[in-house]
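FAQ

Q: What does a record look like?
A: Structure on top, sequence underneath. For example:
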């Protein structure tokens, strides 16, 4: 039988529990508003000329490096060749790197937070709503993302018209409304804006879980839609029907496996085939293949273990994929590791301590830029002297590590300091005197030194001399005989 009293108690408890969650939600919004305020204060403080000038690096060391730049290679002196940062830029880079390391965030994330904070602080009504917990930070971000693309004279009206909806709509619907309102209020035609936006077209890759990844293409609406329609039409045309047909058992099993592919899988397979094997109308792309580096445990390569391999810039991949790559792709560098210790046993061929071998070994060891929190691939970074060449640093494996262009400059021009310990461990000290440690992705011993080169001894006789003709020998005079009874 229904119990009205118990029903009412359950509803009351439901209200109480959800109100607690709502209160925490408002508290999070209020905390994010305070964080934005602190970020604005940090930026304004760092822009003070008296502060910015004191965040520069060791000017004496910089000038010393400049004087020695002529004797350095392009890779060794990359930071020296850069244009000098102004005080304000050094201060900006310093507060970004310091904050990113402290919060364990990527520097681009901190840059975005700093930029958003300035915009948020410049819109008083939106900032007050966030401070009061009336809207969430995603609502505020969606508003300023659309508002910042409008001319200054249109921004206040846009905020006034849109802000009430942020208090009543979910983030997804609110973002859609903000986008539509921005389109209606923008004074420029969509033709002009599309032409300007075309300059931002790009393609980027993003790792995903379970050995997968995303390939993002940002282009015009008609290009991206036409490309997807072509892929979709091809997938539907290739969708097989009926049974697997005749043939051997293996062929029938393969046909059955292909028949089971859904449209989503077919689209992915077609995209892969077009991108990896397709050729542009002018022939560009024919014969071109991307080169990656994988680390394969020995027993995995031999098929005696299911321990995953490691793909450079990504992480673990399946043993089957690693064996397939190692078996038939000459553009891959095969790195064999011990199954228990993980120590590298081979880099494909015997490597000696020369420039090319050291670069390959350092790339395999580091995988990414070695600044705290940076994940830019080593292949796109500089090989930097931890102890600067200008200060007597040696060009050997214990004094080299990868730094991306931005962090190479930061190390050279700011007050960040770094020391390299045995095994490739980097100990960083920030301008705020905080310590951070970065470990190599694959700790290994350095490449073996080059053995001594044995060459034929050069003959000392003059070129006109011949082994068939005896050289002129000086006249030897016989020594006088020694007396039998010497006088002593």
């Amino acid at each position: 039988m229904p119990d009205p009293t118990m029903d009412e108690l359950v509803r009351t408890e439901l209200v109480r529990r959800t109100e607690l969650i709502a209160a925490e939600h408002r508290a999070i919004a209020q905390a994010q508003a305070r964080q934005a305020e602190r970020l604005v204060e940090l930026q304004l403080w760092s822009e003070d000329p008296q502060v910015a000038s004191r965040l520069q690096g060791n000017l004496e060391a910089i000038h010393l490096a400049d004087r020695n730049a002529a004797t350095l290679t392009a890779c060794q002196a990359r930071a020296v060749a850069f244009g000098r940062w102004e005080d304000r830029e050094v201060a900006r880079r310093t507060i970004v790197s310091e904050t990113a390391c402290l919060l364990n965030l990527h520097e681009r994330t901190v840059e975005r937070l700093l930029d958003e904070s300035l915009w948020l602080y410049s819109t008083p009504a939106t900032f007050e709503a966030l401070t009061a917990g009336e809207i969430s930070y995603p609502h505020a971000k969606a508003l300023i993302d659309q508002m910042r693309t409008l001319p200054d004279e249109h921004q206040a009206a846009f905020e006034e018209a849109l802000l009430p909806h942020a208090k009543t709509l979910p983030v997804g619907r609110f973002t859609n409304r903000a986008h539509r309102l921005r389109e209606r209020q923008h004074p420029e035609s969509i033709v002009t804006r599309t032409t300007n936006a075309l300059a931002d077209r790009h393609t980027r890759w993003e790792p995903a879980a379970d050995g997968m990844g995303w390939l993002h293409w940002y282009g015009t609406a008609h290009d991206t839609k036409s490309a997807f329609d072509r892929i979709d039409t091809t997938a539907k045309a290739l969708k097989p029907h009926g049974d697997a047909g005749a043939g051997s058992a293996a062929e029938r099993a393969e046909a059955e496996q292909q028949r089971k592919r859904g449209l989503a899988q077919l689209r992915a397979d077609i995209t892969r085939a077009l991108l990896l094997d397709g050729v542009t109308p002018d022939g560009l792309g024919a014969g071109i293949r991307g080169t990656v580096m994988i680390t394969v445990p020995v027993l995995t390569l031999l098929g005696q273990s299911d321990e995953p391999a490691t793909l450079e810039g990504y992480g673990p991949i399946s043993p089957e994929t690693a064996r397939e790559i190692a078996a038939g792709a000459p553009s891959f560098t095969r790195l064999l590791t011990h199954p228990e210790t993980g120590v590298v046993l081979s880099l494909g061929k015997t490597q000696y301590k020369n420039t090319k071998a050291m670069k390959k070994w350092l790339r395999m060891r580091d995988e990414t830029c070695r600044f705290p929190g940076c994940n830019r691939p080593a292949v796109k970074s500089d090989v930097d002297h931890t102890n600067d060449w200008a200060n007597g640093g040696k060009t050997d494996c214990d004094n080299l590590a990868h730094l991306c262009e931005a962090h190479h400059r930061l190390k050279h021009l700011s007050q960040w300091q770094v020391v390299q310990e045995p095994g490739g461990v980097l100990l960083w000290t920030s301008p705020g005197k905080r310590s951070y440690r970065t470990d190599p992705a694959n700790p290994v011993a350095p490449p073996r030194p080059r053995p001594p080169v044995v060459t034929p001894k050069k003959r000392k006789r003059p070129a006109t001399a011949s082994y068939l003709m005896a050289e002129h020998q000086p006249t030897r005079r016989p020594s006088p005989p020694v007396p039998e009874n010497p006088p002593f």
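Q: Is there anything notable about this one?
A: Residues 50 and 127 are 30 Å apart (CA to CA).
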